[in-house]
Amino acid sequence: MNIILLGPPGAGKGTQAKKIEEYYSLPHISTGDILRENINNNTSLGVKAKSYMSRGELVPDELLITIIKDRLSKNDCSKGFMLDGYPRTIPQADALQMILTESNKKLDAVLNIAVDDEELIERLSGRRMCKCGASYHVNFNPPLKDGVCNVCKGQLYQRDDDKPEAIKNRLIVYKKQTQPLIDYYNRKKLLRTIDGSKEISQIFEDIKSVLEAL
Ligand code: ADP
Ligand code: AMP
Is residue 159 a part of any domain in this protein? Predict the structure, then answer.
């Protein structure tokens, strides 16, 4: 199964991706995680990406296309994959199409997780991350012990781009550059819209129903 999780920042893509990864054994490919890892390791890609990310802007398409081409060629993607945070622009979606065609693969579904702006701002402002990839929310999905990751006991932190100015910008960027993908995939008959305003476990049940029906 080859799927994309689409949706605005804070919609719950990463949260649902962890559940889908575990349940369906699909590799979870988050371009945001890949970029943050490069920033932490001070690679040349990380250095290039850092200023765009902290402002809440998109990193240039050519960098992302190289990342995704490389990642999809890895062995663990041979039986399927789940993209989270890619594509975010029409050129990225066109590039993905070419990469898949070259390797005789196709997309099975694009899950569009829909949540309104007010809720997104609340979710992003309260999000707390762990270096291990786990994500929490101070009110909606708190860790068992304040500030400490349930999984690895690491210390939780707030992402730079989850601060108010960057959140505002990311929602503007989403509407301008990423939202057109809803139409793009709808025309290809791949789009399945999920109501992302429900509880985390209920959304996962809805996603399973959609995936089982494919
Ligand atoms: P995305 O990957 O789409 O940016 P996340 O999965 O990181 O979003 O979720 C953003 C924040 O909202 C996190 O703090 C997460 O714990 C919280 N969250 C995710 N899904 C829900 C939900 N259905 N209801 C309430 N909070 C949620
Ligand atoms: P995310 O973790 O998906 O919220 O992404 C965090 C940030 O990484 C985004 O605001 C962008 O700056 C950058 N990023 C992640 N994925 C992409 C992408 N596909 N295209 C451009 N920039 C990206």
Answer: no
